[in-house]
Amino acid sequence: MDGHRVVSAKKGDHDADGHPPLSKGQVPITWLTAEIRRKHNPEVGGIPLTEESSERDKDIYPRIYILGMIKGVFFPKKSNNLISNSWLKIILGSWDDMGNLSWASACLAHLYRSLCNASARAVKEIDGAMFIVQFWAWEHLPWIAPKVDPDKEWGLDHPLRHEAYGCRWLGEKTCDNLGAHKLEEYRRKLDHLWEAELKFDPYPERIVVHHVHEFPLHPGQWCTRVPLICHHIVEWHLPDRCLRQFGREQCLPLAVPESQRRYHGKDGRQGATNWPEEYAKLIRLWNVRQDQDIVTGSHVGWMGYHDPYMETYRRQSVRYMTPEGAADGALFDGIERIHDLARTADHSAAGREVGLIRRIASRLLGCMRARGRDHHRYPPVPPVRPPPV
């Protein structure tokens, strides 16, 4: 995640001779590829690319490859044939400038915005680097991960394993252990998820050392509370909401920055905007990100039901995805509260405790009715047929 923020000076300030009218600051990729083919196609008067070609002509092809990675892998958009002019300005710049950008933070900013947009009820599609979400789910929720053939799994000495830990999922996989791939089934399992079924910190220390030893600042930046910037997109990196994922003790998270709602309205349709000037304050925070680390101790053991974070989480979060899951969750919570009251009840105030237990029991009965007790009854015994004559 190290490097400069990815933000262009102005939307629409790059224009090449001969390219067609822009569509909201975007250029058709089909036009770009056609222009390159025309330039090097001798059948239409172009000059073919050879070993004697100029460095400038040779240089265009790795840039086109990077363009494909931006559009198709790390920053995909629903408009498959259009790419923002802001990206073209970066791609056509110097290699040093491209190498000094924080591509990872920009990719996360784009992904976070895509996930947020897709959470709207009317939205039916999603873009962004969804393979990151898939890898995260496979690592942290082993029960939804496919099995990798141990004979085909790559060892740490494999060259691609050194480049990216996620490459281990490129081996041969089987999904026989997952059952039916139904949305309702996944929602049901997530609603009934136990803490022991979630790997908060799935990456062994040897893996971390193996992959980030060349970048000693990276582990410290995993827990920095900073804005992530990708052109007009600003999304906050808030690790204090999931510190156990980084092996740290979970504390009460800070409030979301007040500016987040205002920046969330920036969708790139604000005209020719000088984004470095617009986001000057955020860029200064990014430049001192090493000073924004969330300092806590190491996480040890399980978090108790009445831990301040857990109580805040239950009070403020939407914990379940289905009405049935919410009913079951309330049932489990109620049983746990009854157990807690019975264990710590003050016998001198038995009447008050009994009244509270009665109210909890009423809630539990309501949850059981909502869950549908008839569903759990045994089916009726079929009638006995007379023997055939």
Question: Would you mind describing this structure in some detail?
Answer:
By secondary structure, this protein is mostly helical. The protein has a domain of 52 residues. Helices cover 43% and strands 5% of the residues. The chain contains 16 helices and 6 strands. Strands 1-2 form a two-stranded antiparallel ribbon. Strand 5 and strand 6 form a beta hairpin. The longest helix is centred in the last third of the chain and has 22 residues. It is elongated. The C terminus is likely disordered.
What is the helix tally? 16
Overall geometry comes to elongated
Largest sheet, order of strands side by side?
A: 1-2
User: Could you tell me how far the N terminus lies from the C terminus, measured between alpha carbons in angstroms?
Assistant: 82 Å
Q: Count of DSSP E strands?
A: 6
Strand content: 5-15%
Mean pLDDT: 76
- Alpha-beta content class: mainly alpha
Order of helices and strands: EHHEHHHHEHEHHHEEHHHHHH
Helix content: 40-55%
Low-confidence stretches: 10-19, 373-389
Rg, Å, rounded = 28 Å
* Largest β-sheet summary: 2 strands, antiparallel
Domain Aminotransferase-like plant mobile: 58-313
Organism: Linum tenue
Region (Disordered): 1-25
InterPro entries: AminoTfrase-like_pln_mobile (IPR019557), MAIN-like (IPR044824)
